[in-house]
Amino acid sequence: MLNRRHMLSLTGSLAVLGALPARLALANAPTDARFVLAIQRGAMDGLHAVPPYGDPGYKALRGALSLADDGGAESVLDLDGKFGLHPTLPELKAWYDRGELLVLHAVATPYRERSHFDGQDLLENGTTRPHAGNSGWLNRAIGLLGGGDRRLGLALGPEVPLALRGDTAVASWAPEKLPAAAPDFLNLVQAMYAKQPTLQAVLHQAIDADRMAEAAVGDTAGMAVLRPGNAARILAESGGKLLAQANGPRIAVLELQGWDTHTNQNGRMAAALTQMNDALAALKASLGPTWGKTVVMTATEFGRTARPNGSNGTDHGTATALFLGGGAVDGKRVIANWPGLEGARLYQNRDLAPTTDFRSVAKAVMQAHLGLPLDALDRVVFPDSGGAKPLGALLRA
Amino acid sequence: MTAAVLAANRFGLGPRPGELAAIGSDPRGWLKAQLDPASSVPAVIAALPGTEARLAALPPAMGASAEAQKQLIQAVLKNARDQVPQDTTARLQAAIRSETPLIERLVAFWANHFTVSGLRPVAAGLIGPYEAEAIRPHLFGRFVDLLKAATLHPAMLLYLDNATSIGPNSRAGERRGKGLNENLARELMELHTLGVDGGYTQGDVTELAKILTGWTIHRPGQPQRAIAAERGGAVFIPAIHEPGEKTLLGKRYRDQDQDEADAALDALARHPATARFIATKLARHFIADAPPADAVATLAETFARTEGDLSAVYARLIDLDAAWQGAGKYRAPYDWVVAIFRAFAADDPDRARRAVQAVNQLGQRLYFAPSPAGWPDDADSWLAPESLLARIDYAEAVGRTKGETDPLRLADDTLGETLTPESKQAIQRAPSRSDAVALLLVSPEFLRR
């Protein structure tokens, strides 16, 4: 199919919209670093993804959810003799072995209740309260980068997650499921929206992102409909291609699903982790050499109960594990101020206790990787977060 | 005229041809006449097989071999594949066809409030019957009855895992070393009644989970003697119910087996936080993303005073001035597609199937909400670059099939005097009727309700 967004630039839409600075701007971006935030909605069980199999309390506590460490096919992939990776994460193990993966454990946001939706809101708004604002911390970080009209942020998927919403315009990308409307028709719509600033701006962003996507990903009309089983991989692969563009976005948000494992957790975690493993493998492959400038960080609203519930699953908990991968990461380490698994050491005798603030990880990446000043991180990106100091030495010097 | 347009779009599902004229000068009366508990269920919905028939058709698996368990799972998945398209097509057909569109909007509203999502395959094949059996019969009665029907329906018990929650001190719990699953208890308070700031604690979640133990689904082959109570495909099994006294929100509940859940749901429905929470969600759905505080307070007061008489709450909402003001709501994909199909009276099964496909393609996959919180109900969630472009693509495709349609007539039939001069001009100047129709569908006015 003829590529409509390419056509559009030739059909006089400039006159309709005025300048289209972002899509034509070839100015250098304020950073060459790439950052991907992979949001695991539903609360990933860190004790399952990164089992502390060397902890003497592990097997008894986890029961039917504990993993074998006998070296067999179902066995944990050892990291440092104490922690391992779930066997469905061979790609992450390979990153680790190459020094491109850091695993952080017992991490939590400041949120201490157990609502998915409030927990996710806080994870994305960057404050210490759910629904404290309508903008996301990553959007504010992008704003501080000073990209001007350049859209440095990219939402992978049809909607823009809260982490990327805010004053700074971002792009979004999803495979097209419908035949593209003709460029002439888009011009008519743009003219109709002349007095509709919101619609006009959103459409402008859409056309912009689409043009970029076509250059990077190719014509995607007729691509498979996103399904829970394939969405992350498709989005990650295309996201990597877009981020690899010299004039493309720098910061992307990817969503990973399937973590709310109240039942049959062994099977469901294997599926969710496999999807994550495959998506991150696709991301790395499509980034090509740009991988060397990339940091990928996972984030989930909270962890899950340390003990299994009545359905071979887990209920909502507190601390969890976090992956920091990429060529820019100084990896091959598990960083955990380990709280222990004995009953009294669990948070409320129930959950893995939090010992590392999520914001300390995120701020370290924003500071060292994107070059944002600590003062702005403390006040603007994560307001009132001066107490959560950035962790040191996560990235390669 | 403007009030009729608002009645048809904001409260209804977008006018069918002639609907604005039928509403005429009494839009409030047109809406209130739909608040009728005796209104009949659409024929396409009534024709769907119910929960008990669907569960009974599954192979037995209780205490059976691993092979039998596998067959049961395969049968459940096959059911979901077969039944979801049939159920969603019926839902769309009912919505497109309805002459009482407020009812169909309320079905969708409450089904979303009490979300069951097919992302759990085990629940997918029961969502159609869930809407027919738990939601539709209780739209106009008291909230507590809707709450009980939704909470204890097999689809919900499966979706939020109560079907596998076992009292740790119950006979089955002690024998098998099994325990609670608190998924339903938490979402029941957070999403269905009190709201997240409604004043409950983790301890309340655990206690409510204990209260709800025993309620599970009627499995094929289950011995009748194990069952103490039955309710529409759900059963109460005393052997998995947690014995002893429970304390929920400061109130003690004596050990009384299946009656505990009813007593707890009664208390949750009466709680002042529930009145505020339901009032807020209704106001957000019908008035604005950030509804005026006094409108919410008025609806909450009506809810509390009438002990959750939903018809009284809807009537109060219809009477509110705020409900007839403001820029309204950005249509979610479902609302937008239904409005298009209603505008063309495209209500045969084949086109209803295409409407389902369109809703799914535009990002609101029917019966597959992303989480128990359901689909979002605000423009921030739906008005995004890719999704707007997808609507424009879709509108153009629709327009290409409507070259015979008189676009200004269609505009008049759907938006009346609310069509802005800019949109009218764009439609009039369009190079073809197809483009003009498509422009109408993505006009700022048609994108909102």
Characterization of this structure:
The complex is a heterodimer of chains A (397) and B (449). Chain A is of the alpha/beta class. Chain A has one domain: Alkaline Phosphatase, subunit A. Chain A has helices at 4-8, 13-17, 21-24, 46-49, 58-62, 90-97, 116-125, 137-145, 183-192, 197-217, 231-244, 265-287, 358-368, 374-381; strands at residues 34-40, 77-78, 84-85, 101-108, 153-156, 171-173, 251-256, 294-300, 320-325, 333-335, 356-357. In chain A, strands 1, 4, 5, 6, 7, 8, 9, 10 and 11 form a 9-stranded mixed β-sheet that branches. In chain A, a hairpin with a 5-residue loop joins strand 2 and strand 3 (84-85). The termini of chain A are far apart. Helix content of chain B is 56%, strand content 3%. Chain B has helices spanning 2-11, 19-23, 27-32, 43-46, 51-56, 66-97, 101-113, 121-124, 127-135, 143-151, 154-159, 171-176, 183-192, 202-212, 259-270, 272-286, 293-305, 310-319, 333-343, 349-361, 379-382, 385-400, 407-415, 421-429, 433-441, and strands at 215-217, 229-231, 234-236, 246-248, 251-253. Chain B has a 3-stranded antiparallel β-sheet with strand order 1-3-2. In chain B, helix 24 (421-429) runs antiparallel to helix 25 (433-441). The radius of gyration of chain B is 23 Å and the shape is globular. The chains are: A alpha/beta (397), B mainly alpha (449). At the A-B interface, helix 7, strand 6, helix 9 and helix 10 of A face helix 13, helix 21, helix 22, helix 24 and helix 25 of B.
